[in-house]
Amino acid sequence: MNILITGGSSGLGKSIVEMAAKENHTVYFTYRNHKENADSICSQYSNSISLNCDFANSKNLKEFLNKIPDFNLDVLVNNAYSGITLGQHFHKTSITEFQEAFQNNILPLISITQKCLETFRKKKSGKIITVLTSALVGTPPMGYSVYAATKAYIAQLVKSWSREYIKLGITSNAVAPDFMETALTEETNDFVKDQIKDGNPLKNILTTDEVAKVVMNLMDASPQLNGVIIPVNAGINIL
Ligand SMILES: NC(=O)c1ccc[n+]([C@@H]2O[C@H](COP(=O)([O-])OP(=O)(O)OC[C@H]3O[C@@H](n4cnc5c(N)ncnc54)[C@H](OP(=O)(O)O)[C@@H]3O)[C@@H](O)[C@H]2O)c1
């Protein structure tokens, strides 16, 4: 299969890129800053192709969008996230922070998905897999209003896509992982990590490889599996 993974240079995206490359798929992945990570993945897997794009830069994004039809894609994994998870209490959060989260995450994800749908609609098949968060399960942690609201907006898109394109054999599903140790969460202190570990029924912190395996299963799944959001959190709660 031809697969595009956004934000494949680190964390969860890197795990997905590596697993897909090991299965001999052709793997296109984007990165923003970490060229050295991207180069190292490409030198290890000759079937992986890195593309530099900062989704917050409209010219950059447009150039990237123009390349997508050439990839003849079968799968899109919407994984990249621009910004931070833990912010301030809602009343201290500026309007600009909400605007930036929308501008840098939701709008690029919409443009990329629309562009991939051009290929999927022609092929009458395709899989859209989107990375959400278990912060959507129950009540989000304190300071998560921007992050959780951004992901909640995307969760609704995931469901709309599943409704609108299934007749063309195109599915849309998502994963909603619990906390993983990545660059996005590197400022989390040990006390909070211990609490997360303690709250997990398996007494483990979820790894990016564990979530990547769920994403790989979604790539292989029958189109009968559509419109689902899979929490990956050892069943702490249900979505
Ligand atoms: N870590 C967690 O606890 C957790 C839990 C649930 C869900 N998630 C979700 O998992 C996904 C991956 O996150 P992660 O934890 O693996 O974080 P990460 O290691 O920081 O990876 C984020 C990726 O997104 C790319 N990126 C960031 N800003 C970008 C921008 N403006 N334009 C283009 N690409 C950009 C980064 O590229 P560069 O590194 O090259 O800059 C990187 O490849 C996100 O959707 C996140 O919300 C994470």
Automatic annotation (TrEMBL):
One of its GO terms (biological process) is monocarboxylic acid metabolic process. InterPro entries: NAD(P)-bd_dom_sf, Sc_DH/Rdtase_CS, SDR, SDR_fam. SUPFAM superfamilies: NAD(P)-binding Rossmann-fold domains. Pfam families: adh_short_C2. Belongs to the short-chain dehydrogenases/reductases (SDR) family. This is SDR family oxidoreductase. The lineage of its organism: Bacteria, Pseudomonadati, Spirochaetota, Spirochaetia, Spirochaetales.
